[in-house]
Amino acid sequence: MQPLAHAIDVGAEIGRIEDAEGYIASICFKTGPPDSIGVEVEHILHHPGHPAQPIDLEAVTAALAPLPHAGGVSFGPGGQISLAARPQPSLARLHATVNADLDRLGELVAAADLRIAGTGIDPHRAPRRLVSSRRYHAMAASFARRSGDGRAMMCSTAGLRPILDAGPPGQLAARWAAAHELGPTLLALFANSPVFAGRDTGWASARMRTWYGIDPARAGIVPTGPDPAAAWARYALRAPLLCVRRPGISWTVPPGITFADWIGGALGGRPTYDDLDYHLGTLFPLVRPQGRLQVRYLDAQPGGDWFAPVAVLCALLSDGPTIDAARDLAAPAAGRWIEAARYGLTDEVIAATAPPLLDLALRVLARDGLPAPLLDEVGTVIERRFRRAWPHLYHPL
């Protein structure tokens, strides 16, 4: 698939499927030497001492103020608070800026008598939508056709989303594949959400269990292979529409209509490239290409623990030889998404895969000059996760 060779008027109508495919290919993977790392840190908010009490979103909004490093703050449908950090040229710089913004954000929400929970799913409250919009109304209607998992995902989950450069053209396919193949091991290691709405679910990551209940055409695994852009374009165009923006009326759409169907006239009239941009933002696969790679399979982490999974993932994708080695080590657990979310590190295959993979990550971080205190921080978080999984059998890496 060839990217479009010229600029596109985003208000122009899309006449052919091939035009949409070419446009997606031109924007989804911005290749080049990796030179920055970003992260989105999402959290659930609770009242100290009364964690089952609903939060007052207006009070939280009124308490907010600019953050030291200008991270963007937004709210999810259930009142989850999200910090979108600015990409940084190094892990050390990302650590400093994100922690400064998170510390200040914690102070601001404390002014509204709230604290950050640090788990991947709300352990105390049932799903309840606090943010009203036509998009969220259409999303809720679409998800409700399948199960109640969509409502839980919308209102009760919080994730950690590293954002990595797509990498050089020659490494793109391997880097894209590795971001998926490493997923089950990293999901299991950092699973952080067994309790949902006061009940032990029996899952290490109840957050990911809810995502598995959403339509895989919207939230599943995008195929990997030699041409990631073509695979993503096919996935995106075959995905059902979540909503269609219309002035003054509901954005809901009949079930089962894909973006490709819309191009073909299923809704009477054709979409624009701006509509396609919006549609791409309504897809929630485990790794989403948005020019860069947004990794979406990690649970939110408590306090400063967010840095360890980001650093490990960044290290394992740092260069071609490391990617190849990481993929070889991760291969036995690749594809074990259900087992990773259900059993975490107690899954025998993942348990055997994790130590050598993490040892590789720590060696690469040391090689690449991560300051010793930050390297120790990553190692401490990893050891804590192993101790929790194997309290009687644990031995350090």
Could you explain the architecture of this structure?
The structure is a single chain. This protein is α+β, with helices and mostly antiparallel strands and 397 residues long. It contains 17 helices and 11 strands. The strands form 3 sheets. Strands 1, 3, 4, 6, 9, 10 and 11 form a 7-stranded antiparallel sheet that branches. Helix 4 packs antiparallel against helix 5, helix 6 runs parallel beside helix 14 and helix 13 packs across helix 16. It is globular, with a radius of gyration of 21 Å. The N terminus is likely disordered.
Judged by helices, strands and strand pairing, the structural class is alpha+beta
What is the N-to-C succession of helices and strands?
HEEHEEHEHHEHHEEHHHHHEEEHHHHH
Main beta sheet: 7 strands, antiparallel
User: How many helix segments?
Assistant: 17
The average pLDDT value, as a whole number, equals 95
Morphology call: globular
- The residue ranges in which pLDDT falls below 50 over 5 or more consecutive positions are 1-5
Number of DSSP E strands: 11
Gyration radius, rounded: 21 Å
Q: Which strand-content bin applies to the residues?
A: 5-15%
The amount of helix comes to 40-55%
**Distance linking N and C termini:** 44 Å
